[in-house]
Structures are given as C-alpha cells and as structure tokens.
Design a protein that fits this description.
Elements lengths: L2 H4 L5 H5 L3 H23 L2 H18 L9 H20 L30 H4 L2 H12 L3 H12 L4 H8 L3 H28 L6
Helix pairs in contact: 3-4, 3-5, 4-5, 5-9, 7-10, 8-10, 9-10
Length: about 200
C-alpha cells in the first residue's frame, strides 16, 4: 500500500455501510498502533497479538454503534485499552479500575528522596540498562496509572484524548499521570542513587 493510501482518512459512512475495502484500510492504518499499545500494556507479544485481533473483531461487530463523536483512532484505542485491561486484571488484579470514580483524598506519599541526576554521565542516563529498568518500573505500576502513562507519555495522546479513551475526566487523567510519573521518578531515584553511591567520593 502506498503512502497516499496510508494517510487517507477513514470514512465512517463507508465502514458502517459494510465496505470491506474501507475496513481493510482501517486495519492496515491502525494495526501497528494497537499492537504497540497491547505490547506495552501486557509486555507479551502473544498477548499483544490477541489484543490486536480482538480489537478489530469488536470494531467490526460494533461499528454501527460508533457515533463518530470521537476519532476512529480514539475509538480503537478505547476498545484496545479495555481488552488489554481485562486481560491484565486476570493476570494481576488491581483494586483501582479505570471505571472506578476517582477518590481525590487517595494521595500517594511523596518520594523520600529525589537525587540530582546531573552527577551521572549522559551515557549512563541513556543506557539500555536504564531503559530496561524503566520498562520494568512502568510494568509494575497499578493498572489505572499504567494505562494513563502509556497513553499520554508513550503513545503521545493529549490529556483530552486520553480522558476520552478511558472515559474519565481530564482532571482525573492529569492526577493519575502525575502519580504515575512520581512513582517512576522514585524508582529511578533508587536506581541511580545506587550508582552515585558506588562512585569514588560519591560523585
């Protein structure tokens, strides 16, 4: 498929009319996006493939219910996210679900220590080991924080788009993103503090 076809906008009217070519175009355009999301959420290629397949099966069967108020990509993100969360909860139950109303008084503790990373060489900050550690830290986030972080900071959705995907308020989206970032910063603080302490004279 050439680039002009890849960038062609998806026609909701054609999809709802049962146009198989239009549905194939949608699958081709968004498969990589959905697979990447599934892989980040589940950290397993087979699970990501399952999410990809289930997303388009449900999209096909529910296209008549899509009212077009959100973009096709946002709609697909929402289906894929729900599928990923259902599978993730089977593997690792999370007491806070995306559907649970946000409790404003449910606050995380501030990190006990935030180190100054300027003492570390850039090569260490950008090493493969650091990225692997960060991936593991993201994977260990509670499901409700993990999905917001992935959609906003990895997939690059706006706060408004993320809120639509998860069917929560923009305020809740911002709060969960802040909590996720704080937890990850705390984990990286632990990681880098060990390396700073291991350097001569602590520098």
């Amino acid at each position: 498929m050439d680039k002009s076809e890849q960038t062609k906008s998806i026609s909701l009217e054609a999809l709802q009319a049962g146009d198989k070519a239009e549905f194939a175009l949608m699958v081709d355009k968004y498969s990589a996006m959905i697979y990447r999301l599934g892989l980040k959420m589940l950290n397993n290629p087979q699970d990501a493939e399952d999410i990809l397949q289930e997303t388009f099966i449900k999209a096909f069967h529910n296209i008549d219910r899509f009212d077009g108020r959100a973009s096709v990509s946002t709609w697909l993100y929402r289906i894929a996210t729900n599928e990923a969360l259902m599978l993730l909860r089977k593997k690792r139950p999370d007491p806070i679900s995306v559907e649970t109303p946000w409790q404003e008084n449910d606050q995380e503790q501030e990190p006990l220590q935030i180190i100054d990373w300027c003492c570390l060489p850039e090569s260490e900050l950008m090493s493969n080991e650091v990225w692997e550690y960060l991936d593991k830290a993201v994977d260990m986030l509670p499901n409700s924080l993990k999905v917001v972080f992935i959609l906003r900071d990895i997939e690059g959705l706006s706060t408004r788009e993320t809120a639509k995907v998860l069917d929560i308020s923009e305020a809740a989206t911002k709060t969960r993103l802040s909590r996720a970032r704080l937890r990850l910063r705390e984990e990286l603080t632990k990681y880098f503090s060990e390396r700073i302490e291991g350097q001569p004279d602590g520098t």
